[in-house]
Amino acid sequence: METAVVFASRHGTTAEVAGLLATELGPGSVTCDLADGPPDLSRYDAIVFGTPIYAGKPRPELGRFLGQANLEGKRIGLFVCGMEVDPTKRAAEMSAAFPPDLAARATTIAFLGGRFRFDLMNAAERFIIGRIAKTKVNQDAIDRDAIVRFAQDFRE
């Protein structure tokens, strides 16, 4: 199955997760960074979309791309990267990340963890994240087990 993992990333964590996921999905899987422009998805049987969540919101470029993408006949998977630990808030973030009709079509949906990279944040981001998360140090919470499960579920 030819699969494109299409993502938007800000500080690189979602790009890394997309790469790990493409590797787990196996041969024929590629990553497509929306920062490089809109990818041609016509040759892919399956498409996984991923976005980080910042202050409860997904990256806007993913929403713009989804608004014009032709996804008819494609198998769809969705993932979010973030640092929220509360399951109810995670579900709300996932809901806000993707259009409801796309989420209803998706065969696999998952929250794959994330990272705080204070060394890559601007001053405003450091201030906001520091107040919300009550930390000022880098943290890695990428859920590698969830990435493996996502790939297994998506392939089945």
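(ticket continues) Second input and output from the same batch:
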Amino acid sequence: MQEIKRQFFTYRNGMLADTLRSYGYPYKVIFGLELPRIADIARGLSPSAELAEQLWEDREVRESRLLATYLYPASEMTEERAEAMASDVRTQEEADMLAFRIFKRMDHAADLLERLRKNPACRRAADALAAHLER
């Protein structure tokens, strides 16, 4: 985890971080990494539900949450865990990344969509998943 944070710090982009803060992003720490840079970091790591869970639980760091979506194997994601993560979404960016990187790749993505639509706390993620399944 320390090596990941070191990479976040190395590639930080203060201008983007300031812009995201001005948009009201709710994180205490925003390094300002662009998604392609986060994807580069992910390519240097092995997919791991355990590591992804640790990153997702790091609620106050934007890049941790986004990197988690690259590392969580869709094959290991249960509908119950997907719903829990969806209800914990803090921004539309997180919702989009969960839907695009994990949820749409699940075997029963359509069933998950119906489940998420029934839970008001999962609204952002449900809308994001619906948009990705329509493509």
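Agent notes: The mean pLDDT is 96. The two ends are 35 Å apart (CA to CA). Closing as not reproducible unless the customer responds.
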